Amino acid sequence: MPLTPETLPRHELVGLDCEVVAASNPDVIGISGTVVMETTQMLTLEGADRVWHVPKDSATFAFDLSTETVLVDGDRLVARPARRTENTGDSLWR
User: Where along the sequence do coiled-coil regions lie?
Assistant: First the structure.
């Protein structure tokens, strides 16, 4: 499945450039970097000078694809990465 704005929430996020554009915690707004790790509840972004752990459920992320920037509500990403990206079986993400 190609990486498009419609399919982004079902893809592997590690390696994508990302920025926090909205969040319940104003301290994390504006954090940007490359996604280096993903867990069920967190995205880990590596910036120029440090590594940030941002909760998925309380933020909106802007992912930079090669052709455009895609906004994704973090609530859509809250799931085990393997479960969220699976292609077979009964899945809420399919």
Answer: none
